[in-house]
Design brief:
About 60% of the residues lie in helices and about 0% in strands. The chain has about 240 residues and is mostly helical. The chain has a single domain, classed as Hypothetical protein af1432, CATH 1.10.3210. The chain has a two-stranded parallel sheet. It starts with a strand and ends in a 9-residue tail after the last helix.
Length: about 240
């Protein structure tokens, strides 16, 4: 019997980062409680690593690219659709872009339109890529998924949400779509680990409640969110 790490109570906040902008901290507070919050923070981390010098737009888009899944009423997709179903991917990306755009306008009503437009474009392309920066976001999404969501694939199989083959197809697709060579190299260890855990899914004990609680908690992921926001509260405009 295998056991995924279930105790996260003693972990230091793994995504504490002094470079998080006031706007990014506000977005984290906005999405606090979202079970994909760790995935979003990890995507930002990978975007920075892959880009070398990531633009503010890329970092912010990585942090919010899946925001729509936090809000009821989004598109649904079934395993028979295939994970690369363009109808779903476009609906998901567009809804996320719309929700983030509305949030930006409410939080920073006199902000830089160029920043908001570029963030929107990046979110719209995070599943399919495009230019080099958009390919980086797509790759960061894949890297983050396999790094942080191996427990989710185990849940899919154990709960009968997906068959083993369907879950395996998701893992395969997250690797196959990458066009950044450094990202392919970086993702292979995470892929191997995720596949191994998936193969042993029925023999794996997982504290799903704890995994979700940790992955959705801003305070456990980055530390005291209110203190971080207060420290950076003087910057109220969009990055330029």
């Amino acid at each position: 019997m295998n056991t995924l790490p279930n105790s996260t109570t003693d972990r230091q906040p793994p995504y504490a980062d002094a470079s998080l902008s006031p706007l990014e901290l506000k977005a984290i507070k906005w999405l606090d409680g979202f079970y994909q919050l760790e995935h979003l923070l990890a995507a930002r981390k990978w975007a920075i690593q892959l880009a070398g010098s990531a633009s503010p737009e890329l970092k912010f888009a990585a942090l919010v690219h899946d925001a729509e899944r936090f809000f009821p009423g989004g598109p649904s997709s079934t395993p028979s659709d295939g994970f690369d179903n363009p109808d779903y991917l476009f609906l998901h990306s567009t809804r996320s872009a719309d929700i983030v755009d509305k949030w930006l306008k409410s939080e920073v009503p006199n902000g830089d339109d160029r920043f908001a437009r570029r963030v929107r474009t990046l979110i719209l392309r995070h599943e399919i890529g495009g230019n080099h920066e958009e390919d980086i976001l797509q790759a960061a999404d894949s890297l983050s998924f396999l790094e942080t969501f191996d427990w989710l694939a185990v849940e899919w199989v154990n709960k009968g949400i997906f068959t083993f083959d369907e879950a395996q197809a998701k893992l395969d697709w997250m690797v196959a779509r990458i066009r950044i060579s450094d990202a392919v190299t970086a993702i292979l260890p995470f892929y191997s680990r995720a596949v191994d855990r998936l193969k042993n899914a029925t023999k794996t004990v997982i504290n799903l409640q704890e995994c979700r609680a940790f992955a959705s908690s801003a305070s456990r992921l980055i530390g005291s969110l209110n203190e971080e926001i207060e420290a950076g509260s003087t910057a109220q405009r969009l990055p330029r």
